[in-house]
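ARCHIVE ENTRY
Sequence with per-residue tokens
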Amino acid sequence: MDYFDETNTPLLRRKLRIMHSKVSRNRSMRSNPEGNSLMSNKKKKLSLPPADTMDTLRKKKQTYDNFDDFEGKYLAQKSKALNRSLESNSSLDTTTPDTLSQISSIAPYSDVTMHTTLNHFKKAKAKPSDETWENAVSKARGEPDGAEKSFHAKKLSRTVIKEDMEGEEAEHKEDKLVTPTKPLQRKKSIKVHIKNAASKLKILRSKSKLNTSKAGSKRKMDVSAFPDESTVAMKKPKLKELSWKERRHERKMTKNNFEIIKKAKFVWEEMRRHKLPDEKRRKLCEELFKMVSGKMYEFALAHDTARVVQCLVQFGSNEQRTSIMEELKDNIVGMCKSKYAKFVIRKLLKYGTKQQRSFVIKQFHGKVRKLVRHREASEILELAYNEYANAAQRLSIMEEFYGPSFTLFKNHATKSLDQILTEQPDKKDMILSNMKEALLPLVDKEILIHSMIHRIFFEFFTYASGKMRSEMIELLREHLVTILHTRDGARVAMHCVWHGTAKDRKVIIKCLKTHVLKVCKEEYGHMVMLAIIDVVDDTRLVHKALLDEMLKSLDEVAQNQYGRKVLIYLLSPRDPLHFHPDIVHVLQEGDKNTTSKKDGKVRSQELADYVSSALLQYVVDHSRDLVMNNNTLLFILAVISHARGDPTEAMLAISKIAAEPFVAGNCDNFHIVEHPAGHLALKRLILNDKERITANEDVLFSKILLKVVPPGSLKSWAACNRGCFALISLLEVDDDDVTTAVKQQLSGIRKSLKKMTFSGAHLLVKKLEASSPTRPQMIDL
């Protein structure tokens, strides 16, 4: 059939459309690879030449038997030309693609010669027997990102294909057998070429490359492979190739004033030595000051150069400190907020003059409420307030919490909030409301550690009352543990305990759990424990939350001076023998609270009953250590005098120590009678029997002592001054049995006592003579 006949052009076009539809379906079976592909840029059509060349092709009709032969040879020539262009491009281009988009943009490499005929597309359901242009492109590119197994290309095998002719000439159908062809050998794909080119490029970029060539059994070195010395000098190494120290040095070199910083740090290392002579240090200060002058603020902000400025402030002269202050005076507040520059301000406060300190504190004016909430600046503000500010400067800092009028208008005549409220009582509500508003943001764990904040809270609780005070207690009750270490903070906690509700007190006590030992041992924190003992009605809660934890570490509490006060207060609250009147006066402020309902004596009795047995047993187990320690003297006396229970075992343990053999003048092992603390404990325990006799108690320490001490031991006591005073105490008990027993043992040593030179012996003789009955005088007849 003549395919170039003009009458058959519609049939030809129809077959071409079928061919294009199959190609498009094959292309849509997989997603487009990353980047711009050749298919999108230049749409290749497996079709005949354009219509304008049809006449030329008709002229060449006689050279071809049919159209299929013509089409196959035409496409074969076209694919060979394309292969030659790809080979030339791959040989010239040696650059390594970086991304998949660059790989996908490379022209596809044709693996095999494509033979495509129109007969392949005549039957729509038949599988193609040869590879299409799209399959060649996919093999050259490789699998695109995200491609799944279902889109993988299938290997095509050469098989016998039965082709059916369709169209208007259906009567001329005939089966054509295609003989199996030999599988073509696959050439290297473009992916392999790219990989080889990348490896070659990597080798060429290496530091050193030896090109060797075999000439017999010897290998010659290619000198041109080594880089030139000038090239090596100009080449800058990468950061990955450097060590950690070298990378850090490279980063520092990029900073401004690198050379000056390097020299300044060298001088600083020399100047900060302790054994450096003063003259040399002075010269180094001058040299360092010249380097750093004009760059103080910039140096103060860095962690290493800030030390240089600190050292210069510390060892520099007054003129140099003045120059530094002049340079930094406009940035004081900003430096207080800096992590490293704040230490320069600390040095200025410590080594600066009085005027310089006042200038630094004056810079805080109007900014205190903001600075106190800043993590870094609050430390400097706290230091200035506690260490370097006078009374007027402290009040100026505190006034910013009283209200804006006190911030703007400073009255230097006033010295405290009490004076302000006395002079202007109508401003009390305004000041307290402003204080409450300012204190609410400060209820934070990190801010509450500062004593300046404790002072503000204490002033608020001193004058606040009613609902305003209750609201503040509710906010502060869970954070009292963090403010107990200062005087004002402990007073604030005491106000919360006194004026809080039963629920507030319960929360406060539970928050103190696991901190009881530390609170008892603090100078001001133990006052909070005394306030809890005074006013909390729920004694069982106190037993479980506080006293149990205290008794577990009883030895550690008893050995501390403030811990002993807590233990003594449990047995004898507000005893003037153990507690100063000022402390008693402070504790009496809690008696006005409206929350406590239980009688104070009943509450004290319940607490004393709970701890008495443990304290008496502690005295028995540690009697020698307690008796020989001057600090625990009153503690022993309080336990034996006020503990609920039988103190006989404790008295017996102390009496056994006194019954030990005594040799006067033995400095190696002091007896309790001659020990500086032991003889006082012995005297006080003996004299305490007077009170026990008045209270009609049967157990007396003096009687137990005389029973335990061997006969004749009292005579050895009289050989020293302190022993004589102990015997005098026994005679002053005013108990007939005790007095008689002492006189019987001392009856034969009166003459010896009169010969003694110390005062105790003379007083003992007078006491014996005064207590003995007078004899009737003999009359001579």
